[in-house]
Structure formats: C-alpha cells, structure tokens
Design a protein that fits this description.
By secondary structure, the protein is an alpha/beta fold. It has one domain: 3-Layer(aba) Sandwich (Rossmann fold). It contains 10 helices and 7 strands. Strands 2-1-3-4-6-5-7 form a 7-stranded mixed β-sheet, sandwiched between helices. Strand 5, helix 7 and strand 6 form a beta-alpha-beta unit. The longest helix is centred in the C-terminal third of the chain and has 18 residues. The chain is globular.
C-alpha cells in the first residue's frame, strides 16, 4: 500500500500562517488572543504588507503580541498605544499602523488616549480585545465587567451602586466624527472568526484611505479569569456577554455613503 505524502501541496488542508513565529504561545488554553493573532497575521500576509505594517502593543496579555507575529512592533506604556500609534502614523503615513489592546488597558487606563485619537480621526486601526476582566494582573474588575460578574475585586459580583455600570465604549466611540469603521466581532466559532478576519482586513484597507480611525472590538473569553473551561467560557460569553455587547457593524462611513446600512 502506497503511503501518502501529507506535505505535498495538494494534500495540505491547513498550515500555520506565514507570519506566525515558531515561538510557543503562552496564552491559557481556550484564550481568544491566539485566534486573533492568527487572523491578523493572515490579513497582513494576504495583503502583502508585512514590511509596511507596524503594531503597537501596551501592557497586559496583549503585550506579548510582538513575540508571535513577525512584523515591526513598538511597545507603549499602559493605555498609551493610541498616542504612540498617532505619532507613528503621522511620521510614516505610508505605513499600516495598528494597536492591539485589552479592555482594562483601552477602556480604563487609556480612556483619554482612545477617545482623543478617535476624535482627531487618526488613520490607524485599533483592535480591542474585550473579555470583561483584567486577565494578566489578577482577574480584577474591568470597565467592561458585567453586572453581577464575580472578579477578584468584586467577589460578590459587580454592583452598579458600588462599582458603576459596564462601559460600552465601542458605541461611545461610534458617535465621534473621526471614526470611519466601528464593529464588534468574536472568534468563538469558525464562522465568527471569518467575519472577524474580514473586519480586520476592512480596517487595514480603510486606514490607507485617509478617512479616519477603524475600531474593531473582539468580544473574547478569559476562561482562567472567569474560572471556566474553554467550552464553558464560550457558552457563558454567548449567553451573557453578547446581550450586553451585541455582535455586528456599528458604523461604516463608506457603506453609509453608498446607501448600505450597518448591522
């Protein structure tokens, strides 16, 4: 019986994206970060812009993105990635510049930076990972933590009277004139990942059109912070996160100008 050479091109059904390095990922099993990294790497590779792309990563689980995607990277102080991306894009307008940030970073410590970058209409892409918790630093409550959700700093669940309400920063940013494309996606299924990939590509394409900032929220899991298995975390996200943070396009300037509505 003849053996099959699984490495022959016609027999390959899947291969590692060209821009993903050989470094072993440190993320917890079931974490959404690895999937989003893969999508970003595929988009950059397919667009042929590896040597034209600069990523900005701040503090948090997202800080290690430079270790896994083979492009130029800069590291920013906690929350300050949009400010650094602004300078980078203005100094190198021909480059594709994006930030990769978590909810504790972007929606709390970096609130001023993201709001003003959007207000100015900087031609950058912001990829926002929203898992409703501070993942790296101890599982504390984040601005996007749901009401009733238990964290290390809200052990009895988030209480609106004590902790305030969850921050839907993506909808807030959509109201600013400087934003061109605002969307919320997820990567919990293959179909969802394909939509997220298309959104990321659209963001990169829009950034070179000079029409403003593209903001892509990825509603994600943190199964270690949530104290759930990967399967249970995906189920909990769909049942609890999606009602508060519904998936879909929120604002698309070019689509609206051509008569195509969002959502």
């Amino acid at each position: 019986m003849d053996t099959i050479d699984i490495k022959r091109p016609e027999n390959i059904v899947y291969k590692k994206p060209a821009l993903i390095t050989d470094n072993v990922m440190h993320y917890c099993p079931g974490c959404s970060h690895g999937t989003v990294h893969k999508l970003i790497a595929e988009v950059i590779d397919e667009m042929g812009i590896q040597d034209k792309t600069i990523g900005i990563c701040p503090v948090g689980c997202s800080v290690f993105a430079y270790n896994y995607i083979d492009i130029d990277w800069q590291e920013a102080a906690h929350g300050r990635a949009p400010a650094l991306a602004t300078a980078t894009k203005r100094l190198c307008p021909d480059k594709y510049v994006f930030t990769y940030q978590g909810d504790g970073d972007l929606a709390s410590i970096g609130t001023a930076e993201i709001i003003h970058a959007c207000s100015r209409g900087e031609n950058i892409v912001v990829i926002f990972i929203n898992n409703g918790i501070y993942g790296m630093t101890g599982g504390q409550m984040a601005p996007t933590t749901l009401l009733g959700m238990k964290t290390s700093t809200t052990p009895y669940g988030r209480d609106a009277k004590l902790n305030g309400f969850p921050l839907k920063i993506t909808e807030m940013l959509a109201e600013l004139d400087g934003t061109a494309y605002i969307t919320r996606q997820s990567v919990h299924t293959a179909a969802a990942a394909r939509k997220a990939k298309n959104a990321i590509r659209k963001g990169f394409e829009y950034s070179q059109k000079g029409i403003g900032l593209s903001f892509i929220e990825i509603v994600s899991t943190c199964n270690s912070g949530w104290k759930l298995s990967p399967v249970e975390a995906n189920r909990w996200m769909v049942e609890n996160m999606f009602p508060k943070y519904p998936i879909g396009d929120i604002k698309d300037t070019l689509a609206t100008s051509t008569g195509v509505t969002s959502r």
